[in-house]
Specification:
Length: 180
């Protein structure tokens, strides 16, 4: 799992980059209760020290850059049915990227399914590619950033106002293994 690898792996790993980008507020994590529980069960199952697991839980529960959505556990076209929650979470939460360590998932995802997510603005991204994607986005021209971060809101008097908001990349992240 991206989060498990980030907490247990090397400091220079791409999974750690994802964690650091989250901590720095450069990305917003879109997740669901099921995915959080799966991550915690995996961390406990591989005997990550309890204090590290508790820090992870606190990080996710206290951060303004985590959005936990409710899902219905629908079939979403994943080659691995246990990953359907991930895909559903990405759609429900409006994620821009599904970041995964699962090379098998990336290879077996049918083109029609990948196109379905692409039409919704969701890229299925290998965790090693994500740092380059995020860095490129952070180097965008001011005009491109302005166009991307405009949010339209309706005022009480019925007039439309536009706000420019710093908008971190929204990701849903999963991993390589599932809890035992």
């Amino acid at each position: 799992m991206v989060w498990v690898a980030a907490l247990t792996g090397r400091d220079d790993s791409s999974s750690r980059f994802v964690l650091d980008a989250f901590i720095d507020g450069r990305i917003t994590v879109v997740t669901c209760g099921w995915l959080v529980n799966e991550t915690i069960e995996t961390l406990v199952g591989i005997e990550v020290p309890v204090d590290k697991v508790e820090k992870f839980i606190a990080l996710f529960s206290e951060s303004e850059h985590v959005e936990i959505v409710t899902i219905d556990h629908q079939e979403m076209g994943s080659p691995d049915p246990t990953d359907n929650a991930l895909f559903e979470t990405a759609v429900v939460g409006g994620a821009e990227h599904i970041v995964t360590r699962e090379t098998k998932l990336l290879k077996k995802l049918k083109p029609a399914v990948r196109a379905y997510y692409a039409q919704r603005g969701i890229a299925v991204t290998h965790h090693q590619d994500f740092p380059g994607i995020l860095r490129a986005r952070e180097r965008e021209t001011p005009q491109a950033k302005k166009a991307r971060v405009t949010e339209r809101r309706l005022r009480p008097d019925g007039l439309t106002m536009f706000y420019r908001l710093p908008k971190p990349v929204r990701i849903t992240a999963i991993g390589l293994t599932h809890a035992p």
